[in-house]
Structures are given as C-alpha cells and as structure tokens.
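#help-structures
NK: newbie question, is this the right format to request a structure? protein is ABC-type molybdate transport system substrate-binding protein
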Amino acid sequence: MRLVKDFKKLLVLAVLSAMPLAVHAQSQPHGYNDQVFPPWQHGANNDALNKGFDFTVPEVDNMADFHGDLSDPKLVLYVGGNYYFAMAPLVAAFEAANPQYKGHIFYVTIPPGMLAKIMQQGGTITSGNMTFTVKPDAYLAGLKKVQSLIDTGVLSAPAVPYVTNDLTIMVPKGNPAHIESLADLGRPGVKLAMPNPTYEGIGKQIEASLRKAGGDALETQIYQTGVQNGTTILTHIHHRQTPLLLMQGLADAGVTWKSEAIFQEEIGNPISDVPIPPAENSTAIYAGAVVKDAAHPDAAKAWLAFLRSPTALSIFEHYGFKPYTGHS
C-alpha cells in the first residue's frame, strides 16, 4: 500500500510539473495556434459601447455565438448562425440609419432548431458556467422553419424572406483528399464533417443534394453508415465546427453554404471549396418574423424591413447571397 501511495504522489507531481511545459510549448510560434479558433472577427460582432475588461481565451473562455450587451437591449435577434459573419456590417449599417439602437442590439447565432428550443425554455440559455435569459424580438432562419413557427403561434405573421444561398463542399486549402464532387464524399476512407439534420436546417437540404448526386445509397453511406463507423462527424454548429475540423486535420471535407466558404477564405483561413453543380445543389430561402409578445416589436419590424433594403442586400451579396425574388 505504501508503494502504491508513493507512486500516486509521484504521478501527481509529474503531471503538475509537466503542465507549465505544456502551456509553454503551446505558446511557441510553431506550437498551439489560437488564431485558428473563433471568434474570428476580433470583436466586430459586439456592438457594446463599453466592453470593459476583455477576458476572451480562444477554445477555453469564448462565447463566439453570443453578441452584444445584455444589460439594456432594445433589439434581440435570434439568427440562424449561417451568416454570423455578415451580422457585424449589417448591425453597423442598421445602427447608422437608426442611431437609437446603437450599442443596444443583442443577437444569438446558433442553429435554428436550437434557437427554437431556447424559445421553448423562455429564452434562458446556459453556456459553460453562465446562465442568462434574453427573449428574442425577431427570429431569423429558413423560410419553412419560420412559417412553421408562425403556424404554431410562436411567431407573428408575416414571414419576411430576403435572400437565398446555395451549397458548396468545403475542403482544406489545396484539397489534399482530391474531392471533386458530392459523389466523392462516399469514397472509402474520406473523413467528413456534416451538419446534423436534427438541429441544422441545412442538413435536410444536404440530404436532398446527396440523393440527387448518388441516390439513397450515397445519403445512407454518409449519414448512416459513416456516422456508425466514425468517418462522418456530425456537427452542432457547422458554420464554425466544419472549418475548425478541417483545419485541425480531423476531416477531409464538409458540405456548407457557399457564403461560409467565402468568409473563411476572405479572413485568410486555409480553407477552399468545391462547387456543386446546379443540378445537384439545393437553395435556401432566408426569412424572419416578429416573435409573438416581443418586448420590442417595432424594433423587430424595423430590422426585418432593413434586411430587404439595398444596403443590407449589398452586404449579403458580398458573401455570395442572392436577393430573394420570389422564384427560388
């Protein structure tokens, strides 16, 4: 017993003595690269006028999908996370035209299905050790999801569509796995990061595109067999997880919206994409609506009207979105 206790003490001491070395090694130029991890926009997505003490540690203490000041919001947006990167310029343009909201917009950018669950929980969210309540004024997601929540009384009509988006295959820069098509995603040994259809609206559209490209067999290979044998990783927030998994070498490819690949390339991350031909692609229609019993309904209506303005549409077009024309 004495030997066992002594061994345990030595083991603990060894681990503790190794910890500073591990941290030190991670801080070296050729070691841990915290720039790989979000937030990628260096605070631009937070419109708070007084940011106080900055305590952001990528991968450790980091709430990348919660934006703004909770103390006195005058507009709260639940935004499907597929265009989190466009929200900084959108909010800035909206505030320029509506200065009464400057510094008072709070928004959440996670998958639409999760946002709906938060509304069911009264707007209460726990992230890490922090719990807070922030009820939305407007909900923004795919048109079908928005309409379904109108039909169940969660949102107020009308649904307001504004832009569309198409799919692409995101790959690491250089495309080391030589992915050229959706069919290639079913090749033996190809590791995938794919959105989870349970939480992410894009998942259903990806499934439809896989069936167009390779029938039920390709969809089954990727979303059932691949999940079971570990070659397919299902994400919960694909708009952040997919490029992270690619950059860390944990996946060879993943289907995302074209806009997300454009953003990743624009900020300099080693990400590229493989276009999907129109015959195999799927198009999303983005829409929003005012939340029933919203605290700030006029602000929500102003935001929805702004999203259809030339200013907002030009911001969306920068990332590859197309204005909604009623024919998509």
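mod (FA): yep, format's fine, and the tokens are attached above. Residues 96 and 318 are 19 Å apart (CA to CA).
NK: thank you!
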